[in-house]
Design goal:
The complex is a heterodimer of chains A (236) and B (382). Chain A has 236 residues and is mainly β. Chain A contains 1 helix and 10 strands. Chain A is 7% helix and 64% strand. In chain B, 33% of the residues lie in helices and 17% in strands. In chain B, a hairpin with an 8-residue loop joins strand 3 and strand 4. Classes of the chains: A mainly beta (236), B alpha/beta (382).
């Protein structure tokens, strides 16, 4: 936790510093697509699939070189996945929709042409698993629908996920990168669009309860606007 | 130039971060004792459903036993026998009373492990099983129904009997649960008329004061019998508890608890008469689940001993991707597929379901033709 606190302090400090130089303050939102990177080869008639969700973030860009910005974009990101049974077990599934509060920080290289600015951003992020929702259908072992007792009734569930301190690793750290495009509407206002790929480097489950790790891999697609803060005297 | 260097650096980062995840659970036959142990340990980690409440420290098991297994040689008969001892001690404290290990390696194929049975044998109240079918006949009025079925399942014979005691208490008992299959069997069998008589009297209870079901010395059986038998006592779904299964490879990956209800059989009127269930330490699995389901009815009481404590049913691994598993060519494990929690929110796995009226097993009384547990039921019915 000490490392995380220092990290957050550094970001806040950098945001404060940015007010004294050319910087952009914006808001973006859009869709996410998350996949759960693990190995389920031991599981019969089961497939993993990704899940779409939403993201929303504030973005701050601080120009440190003519072609390089420092970036911070705190926000909310949904990261879901499903484990679906196939073949004769089709209909059984288990879907997780997890919401993270996430703080990506990094740098972005830009190329400007008239009103357009094209960039490639990358950096590190830390996230906290804020909320989880679980939905699915499982077989009722006592309920069969046929005389032979081989067709099971499915029972549905759809509820908030209860965190388990023994199991859940609620902090997530990883790296991210992606292209960003900005279009200048007025001297102060910009339209923004961007894509980020976030690769978690930490497991969602604590290693002590699962020898098979599982990581989130998330694509974020967002649109938004940014306001160019007035240049200050401190600008180099 | 500098942005190009930046992009090259990014590309390098992307290629460096790609990684594949291995899975230690394999269906391949292990070639060393280290592999046997690793597969068993990982299969248990994934397939065992009681890690949330079991007190066995599975990580400590790995630390202690991995070096012991790595020193064993698969071709050494003494080492094979030694491995059975290791498996026995590492599973001794498991609470799953369905849990058993049978060895498929030819040298040790006669060995089996049953931690729940071993725990019961070490209990100060331990006693051997006793078949109450004959004892019940002493209490039944003449003309009771008795029948057996050895055709539905050729490996075991189902016996059922039903009749009245004092002409106004309707009794039903069976030595295992296979009633639904026997009832639906196209081959005429002796259990069908017993069930027919019992269901007829349930549907026409005039002259009866109470219903008595004797599930003592009953190892359980087919889960379909829950709806089939208890469904004849109700005319609307009866909530009896909750189940959950594993939903991932982690030790603590679970679905949420889902409510379980017994479904009524079609055209049945709810039984309003007092219901008594006789249960003992040999009421296992479906026998105790059926006892618990009936006890969810307000007019039901249980008499006898605490049941065995095997409340989580099992089926083939594929249904939930948990429960029973094999280590190819070495051993086969039977274990619950779902965790069961009763309607009161408690798990009775490994502990057993307690009676409302405890009456101790008394072999001397039984030897003299008296059944104190049955006597207690009769004393409760005015």
């Amino acid at each position: 936790m000490t490392g995380k606190t220092a990290f957050l302090a550094l970001i806040i400090l950098s945001l404060k510093t940015s007010l004294f130089a050319q910087s952009f303050l914006g808001a973006e939102g859009g869709l996410t697509y998350n996949s759960y990177h693990t190995n389920i080869s031991n599981r019969t008639a089961t497939e993993l699939s990704g899940h779409a969700g939403f993201n929303f973030s504030l973005s701050l860009r601080y120009k440190i070189l003519p072609w390089l910005y420092v970036i911070a974009a705190p926000g909310l990101v949904q990261k879901g996945y499903s484990m679906n049974r196939t073949d004769s077990l089709s209909g059984e599934y288990d879907q997780h929709i997890n919401t993270y509060v996430q703080l990506p920080v990094g740098v972005g290289a830009v190329y400007e042409r008239q009103r357009w600015r094209f960039g490639l951003d990358l950096g590190l992020y830390t996230g906290y698993w804020l909320y989880g929702h679980i939905k699915g259908q499982t077989a009722d072992i006592f309920g069969t629908t046929d005389v032979a007792g081989e067709q099971y009734t499915l029972v549905a569930y759809n509820q908030a996920y209860s965190f388990n301190q023994q199991r859940d690793n609620r902090w997530e750290e990883g790296w991210w990168m992606g292209p960003a495009v900005q279009y200048r509407l007025t001297p102060s206002w910009w339209l923004t669009a961007g894509t980020k790929y976030c690769q978690s480097l930490t497991r969602q489950e604590k290693a002590s309860v699962s020898p098979i790790p599982a990581y989130n891999r998330t694509w974020l697609f967002s649109l938004g606007g940014a306001w160019s803060l007035p240049k200050s005297k401190a600008h180099p | 130039m500098k942005p190009i260097l930046f992009i090259l650096l990014v590309s390098l980062l992307l290629t460096a971060c790609k990684k594949n995840i291995s899975n230690p659970i394999s269906s391949d036959a292990p070639s060393s004792f280290s592999q046997v142990f690793d597969q068993f340990w990982n299969d248990m980690n994934t397939n065992y459903v009681y890690w949330d409440i079991d007190t066995t420290h599975w990580d400590a098991v790995y630390t202690r036993y991995a070096p012991l297994f790595s020193s064993l040689q698969p071709a050494d008969t003494a080492d094979l026998i030694r491995s059975v001892g290791y498996f026995r001690t590492m599973t001794a404290g498991l609470i799953d009373h369905h849990y058993s290990v049978s060895f498929t390696n030819p040298v040790i194929k006669d060995s089996t492990l049953n931690p729940g049975s071993d725990q019961w044998k070490n209990d100060p109240d331990f006693h051997f099983s006793y078949s109450y079918l004959g004892s019940d006949q002493h209490y039944l009025d003449s003309g009771y129904q008795y029948g057996s079925d050895y055709t539905t399942n050729t490996s075991t014979t189902l016996i059922a009997e039903s009749g009245t005691i004092h002409s106004d208490i309707l009794l039903f008992t069976c030595n295992q649960f296979m009633l639904s299959a026997s009832w639906q069997s196209s081959i005429s069998n002796g259990v069908q008329p017993v069930l027919h008589y019992f269901f007829q009297r349930l549907a026409n209870p005039s002259g009866l004061k109470a219903i008595l079901l004797d599930f003592r010395d009953n190892p359980g059986g087919d889960v379909n019998d829950l709806n089939f038998l208890v469904g004849h006592f109700i005319n609307q779904p009866l909530p009896i508890g909750y189940t959950r299964n594993k939903n991932g490879n982690g030790r603590l990956d679970y679905t949420p608890w889902v409510g379980i209800r017994v479904s009524p059989q079609s055209g049945v009127n709810a039984v309003t008469l007092p219901i008594y269930v006789l249960a003992d330490r040999y009421s296992q699995s479906m026998a105790e689940i059926t006892t618990m389901a009936l006890r969810a009815l307000p007019q039901c009481r249980v008499v006898g001993e605490t049941t065995y404590g095997a409340t989580g049913p099992f089926t083939e691994n594929a249904l939930y991707d948990d429960g029973p598993f094999d280590v190819a060519g070495f051993l086969s494990v039977t274990t619950s597929s779902v965790e069961f929690k009763y309607i009161d929110g408690k798990s009775y796995e490994g502990k057993g379901f307690p009676p409302d009226y405890p009456v101790a097993y008394d072999i001397q009384a039984l030897g003299s033709g008296d059944d104190p547990q049955m006597d207690k039921v009769l004393s409760l019915i005015p």
